[in-house]
Amino acid sequence: TLHTGLIKTYLGSFALSIFIIILFMY
Q: Where is the chain membrane-spanning (predicted)?
């Protein structure tokens, strides 16, 4: 459903942000 796709997109953006933050911390 659209709601599930929206959640996946949100989680994807959130995970990407965390990944970038980790890269900057090293």
A: 6-25
